[in-house]
Amino acid sequence: MARILQCVPNFSEGRNKEVIEAIVDEVRKVDEVKLLDYSSDKDHNRTVVTFIGEPERVLEAAFNACKKASELIDMTKHIGEHPRMGATDVIPLIPISDITEEYAIEMSKKLGKRIGEELNIPVYLYEKSASAPHRENLAKIRKGQYEGMAEKLKEEEWAPDFGPNELNIKAGVTAVGARMPLVAFNVNLDTDDLSIAKKISKAVRGSSGGFAYCKALGIEIKERNIVQVSMNMVDYTKTPLYRVFDMIEREANRYGVNVIGSEIIGLVPMNALIDCTNYYLKVEDFDESQILEKRIFE
Amino acid sequence: MARILQCVPNFSEGRNKEVIEAIVDEVRKVDEVKLLDYSSDKDHNRTVVTFIGEPERVLEAAFNACKKASELIDMTKHIGEHPRMGATDVIPLIPISDITEEYAIEMSKKLGKRIGEELNIPVYLYEKSASAPHRENLAKIRKGQYEGMAEKLKEEEWAPDFGPNELNIKAGVTAVGARMPLVAFNVNLDTDDLSIAKKISKAVRGSSGGFAYCKALGIEIKERNIVQVSMNMVDYTKTPLYRVFDMIEREANRYGVNVIGSEIIGLVPMNALIDCTNYYLKVEDFDESQILEKRIFE
Questions:
Q1: Runs of H (alpha helix) within chain B
Q2: Last residue of a domain, one of B143, B160, B178
Q3: Quick one: a GO biological-process term for this protein (chains A, B) (predicted)?
């Protein structure tokens, strides 16, 4: 299976199909890269593309798509509801299989440098790749949006990590950074009492004292007459699914409530699941390379 | 990741390196097939080859290796400690990913037919592919070994499934069949009392009334001063690892003993592990295609 890097760039075009296809084609063209999905939102006027593959090839696809976007999208004319600052607004790189967070960070710097130098676009490193704490959060980087970037780039604390200190009028500014894969994980409770789901969510989420890499919200599932702890696990390597699941079960018991099921929404890295097996079966010394499927394309 | 079939043929040559390499080369040569391992035993005078890949290509590799073995191995001169009946003694086909047991059976019949017709070798279908219950067990098919096969093939109940009713003097007889992947799974207990491991093994293994597809043995791990329930899980789709693990934990508690860990030895199909995660996290409606790694080479 070899090393897999995921890339989920966001482009500031969600209406013109020709432009969208031309950008996505740049991903399709690259060998050893697999386009998983792309979806456009007309109100946001924005397209999100998802692809995975061999890390260096993924970088090539990301650069080519970014180059194409810089040629076909004119930010001076862009209108859309979603905050944005560039034709290629943001390029997250996500380590999936057999690569470290550090390696993904290194790749993001390589990509950012190339975009800055070859396309003459100011690039901010964000999230795990950020060069300073105030640059970790994408929303803070993007504050002021495209229209405010010419001024922002002149501020010392907002000097770009790569590329010129001046706005690229047509292509704007791009953020590049490594982040961990996000796992959407929901746990269902056999009660219709929303306050219980809310209390448990508060107990498990990092922002209110719970697990650092867990975001949680209590919601109602009206058609089933139950409530749910709806979560985004933003780094399963540090806050594993099983630990949060067990804690929710404990907290639920306190209210005389049971966990009746869980849901994993969308794509999930294999290791997020294998980690659970190893925990519950108390597996000693398991090596991923023992998984047959991991051997086929190594 | 696409569909994966595994093949683990056994050849009656474990000493002559040139012959062994020539046979293994037939596997190496085939595209979309990955050679995982091959190991020879001089006393047994036998080589076991393990490879996986796209099902039709795996069949091609198996046939070519079998053909090469029929050309280079002369069974009239074979001496070895392991029971054997042919140059290619046995070819197990094992469904690993995105293929059913039924499909693996179908593949085994296709391969057996081709070996019988093109190489003029009598072929018995065994295990899940067996054409009658008395032919399921390989040991029963092989009873009498190469030297007894000329006579055995004449018996009505031992007529071959494919190929001639007469022994192929040089290449002998070959068994082909589908079987499920075997998972070697051990559970460690915090006691040095072997009788407890033996009692628990008896409780969980199919042959003494336990789980149908579990073989179990109580053994001592002297260097750790503990005992172990050592198991072969011969069909994890029907007897899942988590069910046996939970039962062992329950039985152990009865004797005031705890499970301190488990071991998965050698290769394991991803699904045998994912099934455990789905069980313990009570995951509703999970689809394998949600696993990112499964998407890359689909």
A1: 17-28, 55-72, 101-119, 138-142, 145-152, 194-204, 241-254, 270-280, 292-295
A2: B178
A3: L-histidine metabolic process
Chain B contact present for A219, CB below 8 A: no
Residues B67 and B36 in one domain: yes
B141 Cα to chain A: minimum distance (Å): 29
**Residue B283 belongs to some domain of the structure:** yes
**Angle (deg, nearest 10), helices B270-280 and B241-254:** 60
Which among A53, A64, A55, A54 has a CA at the least distance from the CA of A27?
Answer: A64
B residues 97-126 near A, CB within 8 Å? 97
Cα separation values, B137 from A77, B38, B132, B153, Å: 74, 24, 10, 17
Structural domain of B268: 183-292
CA atoms within 13 A on the CB side of B18: 3
Q: Give A238-249 as a 3 state SS string.
A: CCCHHHHHHHHH
Q: Give the total number of structural domains in chain A.
A: 2
Please state, in angstroms and rounded to a whole number, the distance separating the CA atoms of residues A10 and A51.
Answer: 12
The average confidence (pLDDT) of chain B is 95
CA torsion, ordered A96, A101, A102, A108, to nearest 10 deg: 70
The span from the CA of B279 to the CA of B293, in Å, is 21
Q: Do A292 and B259 touch (CB under 8 A)?
A: no
* Pairwise CA distance, residues B33 & B61, whole Å: 8
A236 with A168, same domain: the answer is no
Predicted pLDDT of residue B284: 94
- Residue A21 placed within a domain: yes
Average pLDDT on B163-189 reads 96
Based on the fold, state whether residues A9 and A132 are members of the same structural domain: yes
**Pick from B151, B178, B205: which residue ends a domain?**
B178
Q: Is B182 on the interface with A (CB under 8 A)?
A: no
Q: What is the CATH number of the domain that holds B43?
A: 3.30.990.10
State whether A256 and A203 are in the same domain.
yes
Mutate to test the interface with A, among B51, B291, B294, B298 (most CBs of A within 10 A): B291
Does any domain span residue B297?
no
> Could you read off the pLDDT of B127-167 as tens digits, one per residue?
999 999 999 999 999 999 999 999 999 999 999 999 999 99
Residues of B forming the active site: 82
Verify that A284 and A160 share a domain, yes or no.
no
Query: In terms of CA atoms, which chain B residue is nearest residue A282?
Result: B261
Residue B297: pLDDT band with limits 50, 70, 90? low
Q: Do A269 and B297 touch (CB under 8 A)?
A: no
| Residue A21, number of CB atoms within 10 A of its CB | 11
Regarding whether B242 and B159 lie in a shared domain, the answer is no
